[in-house]
Amino acid sequence: MNIVLNGEQHQLAAPQALSELIGSLNLSGQAIAVAVNRQIIARPQWHVYLLQEQDKVDVVRAIGGG
Question: What is the pTM of this model?
């Protein structure tokens, strides 16, 4: 299954939950926001949101500063 992750093609072995993708990217527990097809997915929904073929996933890290 193919998705677009931060603008680049990314292949998944099988359909998976958004939380599984985040875990495979070693981003679990980090301050990030995730949008799928330009729609923000709330963190509590990551484990039930199933990715579909050609979904466009954007992962953005929060950066502190001033």
Answer: 0.89
Over residues 24-63, the pLDDT tens digits come to 999 998 999 999 999 999 999 999 999 999 999 999 988 8
Structure-block tokens of residue 10: 């990314």
DSSP-assigned letter for residue 14 = S
Q: Which candidate, 22, 17, 23, 20, places its Cα nearest to that of 48?
A: 17
3-state secondary structure of 3: strand
Length of the chain: 66
Residue 6 in any domain: the answer is yes
Phi and psi of 33, rounded to 5°?
A: -125, 145
Instruction: Give residue 21's domain range.
Output: 2-61
User: Residue holding tokens 């990030």?
Assistant: 32
- Domains in the chain, number: 1
For residue 57, the surrounding DSSP H or E stretch is strand 56-61
